[in-house]
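The methods section describes the discrete structure representation at length, but only in general terms. Each protein is reduced to its one-letter sequence and a matching series of backbone shape codes. I believe one specimen quoted in the main text would settle the matter. An entry of this sort, consisting of the sequence and the corresponding backbone structure tokens, reads as follows.
***
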Amino acid sequence: MASLFNYYLCLSETIRTTRKRAAISQMVLAERAGVTRRFIQELENGRSDVSLQTLLRLSAAMETTVSDVCRQLEDILERGPQEPSRRQGRPKKTRSKP
């Protein structure tokens, strides 16, 4: 059985990948599901849990089903969570020495 910490990491990966697959932002997901963007951030960072009622709303907002989300969660629990990738964007500027 997975540890609670491992469960939170796997849940966060599940929600994040499902949201990205639906091509919606955290803000759009939050608005559609009736939660705050902060809650979505905490959920995707493994610092929050979710009730079944909220999971139902999140799933509907991402145009998927709870069973699909749970299936993906089980798959991730079996293989273990992936390391979260660093935010992609512009590379940091480095100072060049004169």
